[in-house]
Amino acid sequence: MPTRAVGYPPLPPPYPLPKDWRVGTPTRIRPWTVVIYSLVVLGSGAALAFAVLGGNVGAATWWVLVFAGATLGFGVHFERAGGERGMPELLNAVALTRAEKRPPDSWVHFFRERGAGSWVSAWFTVAGVVSTAAFVWAIVRSVTTDAALALIWLIPLLLGALVVLLAGSIAIVSTWRAASFGRLPIGVGIGPSGVTRYYLDDTDDIDWARIARVAPTVSAVDETTGDFTPSVELRAADDEVLLDLNISGFRAHAWLIYASIRFWAEHPEMRHELGTTFAQQRMDGWRRGMLGKSVGDRG
What we know:
Strand 7 (228-235) and strand 8 (241-246) form a beta hairpin. The longest helix has 29 residues, at 151-179. Helix 1 (31-53) runs antiparallel to helix 2. The model is unreliable at 1-5 and 293-299 (pLDDT under 50). Helix content is 43%, strand content 16%. By secondary structure, the protein is of the alpha+beta class. The strands form 2 sheets. Strands 1-2-3-4-5 form a 5-stranded antiparallel β-sheet, covered by helices on one side. It starts with 30 loop residues before the first helix and ends in an 8-residue tail after the last helix.
């Protein structure tokens, strides 16, 4: 059983903040943006309804695209990255699996994936449901009115709407799963043996010995809001990517996840700390130093 250790003083993580990464709370959405999005969503929704009632396929197609774009934008605008404060959870690795096989480590430091928020999940689902229903109606209407030529662009649009609906449905299921008792969490764990990526129903175990380099990357940066999409690549000696880990949707800050994985990848002599509160408190010291103040054990 892990033992309690003396807490580490607040210190910044042992590696500099990667280029284009952020620390701190990003800019909040402005009230006028909410008003504009609301008006566009309501206006396009009403126009779509009138177009459907009037049997106008062209107008309905236009307004459903406007509605879907505004709805998706409304949802995404409330999703923010860069202000996460959570700590990894020190868990028995068996609790993270279905106990069908023995995990490589008994105890791991588990960084829990937050998943899409209920707000963005709901808006993606609304956009998918409305768009799918509208395009199905448009396809049926085109066929029954001998305007089958419209299927050339209606069918691809329907497929796009189904993708949005699927994304919203997966987000809702993931959120429900993370919040429900007995459901397996999604995230990444580090233990004395290596790094484990936990998926919905699978795991990917990577031994420390296979990891030659931990490289931070970023795929999108919004200078206005401070949003960014960070990733960490675990590479082998031959530069093969063992794991490309997107860490923008975790409860802990991406910097803490990156620094933790890289530190124990580069310091095998310190891996005896993993699976104990020694490593847990070391990471807490990094987190408090990163944020510039103590934020408590749960962030």
